Amino acid sequence: MNGLNLELPLSPHNQVPDRAQIPVVTDAGFGGGQWYYSRLERATPFNVDVTSINPVLEQYLTTFDAPLSHTVNDMTLVDPDLLPTFQDWLLAFKYYTESGTTPPLSDVLDAESFLRDFFHKPAILRLVFCTLISYTEDDTVQKNYLRRTRKALYAPDLTPSVELMYAYNIAHIHARNIGELALAEQFMQTALKMLIELRMDIDPDDSPWLSHLTARQKEERRRLFWKLYIQYSYALSYLPEPFRLELTGERVKARAQVFDPNSVFSIEDPTIDLVHQYVAELQNLIGNIRESHSTPPATIKDCLSSANLPQSLHSRFFAVHQGCPIKYRLRFENPSRITTEEQTNMIALISTFHPKLNFLGLNLELESILNAIQQCFSSASRVLSLSLFLEYITMGGGASLLSKAQTKHYGRPQLLNLLESFIVLWFIVCRMDSQWLQLSGLDDDDSIHEIKERMDDIMISTRTRKLPKPAVPMVEAMEILLSEVDDVVRNGRKSSTAQEGTVSHELGIYTSRVDSDSITEPWCYLRFLGLELGSKRDVRWKGRKEDSWRLFWKLNA
C-alpha cells in the first residue's frame, strides 16, 4: 500500500495496515457483493478495477481517503494520546463488522458513517467508545484506553453536541459496568441535560432548525434519544435518589429503518421498538409511583387511602395499561403455574413478535385491603411463573424447543422484579397478620409450602448468575427472605426476640477505595418501608427513607 497517501498525525501507533492485517471476506458475506459499491465509483488510490476490490478493503480506503490536516485550524499542540490511531479504528471496525464478516451495523449509530469519519470524530467519543469495547483485549490495552479517555474528559472544548452527549452516555455504561455507580450517574445526568439543551425531545422531522440533516442523521438522532430516554426511565424506577427532568417521549417518533440503498441500522422487527417504548413508559410510571409512596404519610389511615395518590398517576396507570396491545401480553390462567399448552402459546407469540419481556405487579386498586392482598399475591406469583419460564428457555431444557435464531429473543428475568415479588410473598408468609391471612385464604399449609418451593426454584437459578455490584444486595436480600420463609414453614411463626439496636447487618452496595470502604443505598423499587429482615429482625435495608419509615411505625404502633 505504498501508493496510498495517508495524512495521519505523527505517532508511533499510526502505521499503514499490512495486507496480512486485512480480514479476507467473500462478497457473499456482504449481501452478494452489492454493499458499498456505490461509493467505489469515485477514484481510488489504486489503479485497479473497483468491482474486484474486497468490500472490507474498500472500507479501509474510504476511511483513510480523506486527509486529516484540514481539521486543524491553528497551531495548537495536541496531546498525542488524544490523536486517533489505526489500532483505534481497527478495534471499532472489528466490533461493528464482527471482524469483517458483516456490513457495519448498529441499532443506535450510523456505524458505516462512524467508521468512515472515525478520524474526524471528537477524541472523547472515539476513546470512550474504544474503552467500552476493549473488553476483548488484554489488560494493558484496556488500561491504556482508560488512561487516554481520562485525558479526553478534561479537553477544553466540551460544547454540547450530539456526539458529546453520546460519549457521556457510553461513559455512563462503562462506569456502571465497572461498579463506579456515583460516576455513572453523573455521566448520565450530563448526557440527559445535553439532550434537553439540544432539544432532542422534539422529533427531527418537526424541527425546522434541523432541515439540513440527511435522513440517516435524523434517524440516528432519533435513536440516540430513545436510547437515553429508556435508560432514564429505568433509572427513575430503581435509583435511591433519582434525578428528575421535564422529559417525555411523546414528541419523538418511533425508530424506523433507513435505506441508502441498503439498511443503515441493525434490522429488527418494528414491534421491538414499540415494546421498548411501552416498557420505558411503564418504568417511568413505576418511578413516579415509587416517589409517591416512598415517604411515610401522616397517619396509618393515609396509608390505605388511594385519595392520597395523585390523580395524574391514576390516569397514567390506566393509559399505560390500555396502551399495551393485547397481542404483546403473555397470558396464562393460574398465576402459580404455566401449563404446557400456555407455554407453547407463549413461545409462538414471542417467536412472532420478539417482545422484550418485562413484568411487574402494580396495584393501584386500594378499595379494600383484601383486594390489595389478592392483587399483590397474584402479581408476585405471575412474576415468578414468567421468570421460571424464562429460566427454562434460557438455562434449562427449553432451548431445544427453539431455533438458534429464536433464542436471542429471550433473556433471564430482571432481579429488580424478582426481589419485588420475593418481598410480597415474604410479607404474606412471615409478617402479615394471621387474621388477614385467614380472610384472604392464604393461611393453609399447601399455599405456604407452594410459595416456599417456588422461591426455592428461583434462588437455585439465581445463584448461578455472575452478579454485577448493584445486584449483590438484591440477591443477599432474597436469600434472607427465603431463609425466613423456610423457618416459618418448618417451625411456624414466632414473635421477634430482637431488641432495638441489635441490627447485625445492613444491606447496601459496598465500594472499596484505596483509602476507605463505603456503603451506599442499594437499587430497589419501593424498598422494605422500614421493616427489618430475618427471623431475628437483625438485618436492615440501607436508606434514608427506610429510617423515616421505621420512625413512622414506631410512632403509629
Largest sheet: 2 strands, parallel
Helix/strand structural class: mainly alpha
Strand order of the largest sheet: 1-4
Indicate the overall shape. Answer: globular
Helix content: 40-55%
Please tally the helical runs, counting DSSP H or I stretches of 4 or more residues: 19
| Model regions low in confidence, pLDDT < 50 over at least 5 residues | 1-53, 69-73, 351-367
How far the N terminus sits from the C terminus, by CA atoms, comes to: 82 Å
How many β-strand runs?
4
In sequence order, what are the helices and strands, one letter per element? HHHHHHHHHHHHHHHHHHEEEEH
How would you state the average pLDDT, rounded?
77
Rg over C-alpha atoms, rounded to the nearest angstrom: 27 Å
- Percentage beta strand: under 5%
Protein name: Xylanolytic transcriptional activator regulatory domain-containing protein
GO molecular function: DNA binding; zinc ion binding
Keywords: Nucleus
Pfam families: Fungal_trans
Structural notes for this entry:
- It is a single chain.
- With 557 residues, this protein is an all-alpha fold.
- It has a domain at 32-41 and 81-267.
- It is 49% helix and 3% strand.
- The chain is built from 19 helices and 4 strands.
- It has a two-stranded parallel ribbon with strand order 1-4.
- Strand 2 (509-512) and strand 3 (517-520) form a beta hairpin.
- Helix 2 (86-97) packs across helix 4, helix 7 crosses helix 8 (215-238) and helix 15 (415-431) packs antiparallel against helix 17 (445-462).
- The longest helix has 26 residues, at 369-394.
- The chain is globular, with a radius of gyration of 27 Å.
- The termini are far apart.
- GO terms for molecular function: DNA binding; zinc ion binding.
- Keywords: Nucleus.
- It holds the Pfam family Fungal_trans.
- This is Xylanolytic transcriptional activator regulatory domain-containing protein.
- It comes from Rhizoclosmatium globosum.
